[in-house]
Amino acid sequence: MIKRLARCIREYKWAAILSPVCMAGEVIMELLIPLVMAQLYDYGIELQDMHVVVTRSIQLVLCALMSLGFGVASADFAAKAATGFAKNLRHDMYHHVQNFSFSNIDKFSSSSIVTRLTSDVAQLQMTFQMLIRMTIRCTMMLVLALIMALRLSVKLSTIYLQVMPVLIIALVCLVPVVFKIFDRGFKLLDKLNNVVQENIHGIRVVKSFVRERKEEDKFTDISSQLAKNFSKAEKILSLNSPLMQMCVYACMLSISWVGAHMVVASGNNPEVGLTTGELSSMFTYTTQILMGLMNLSMVFVMMTMSRTPMHRCAEILAEEPDLTSPECAITEVADGSIDFENVSFRYSATAQHRALKEVNLHIPAGATVGILGGTGSSKTTLVQLIPRLYDVSEGCLKVGGVDVRQYDLEVLRDNVAMVLQKNVLFSGSIKENLRWGNANATDEELIHACKLACAHDFITAFPDGYDTHIEQGGTNVSGGQKQRLCIARALLKKPKILILDDSTSAVDTRTDAAIRQAFRDEIPGTTKLIIAQRVASVQDADMIIILDNGQISAVGTHDQLMQTSSIYQEVFYSQQKGGME
Question: How much is the CA Rg of the chain, to the nearest whole Å?
Answer without folding.
Answer: 36
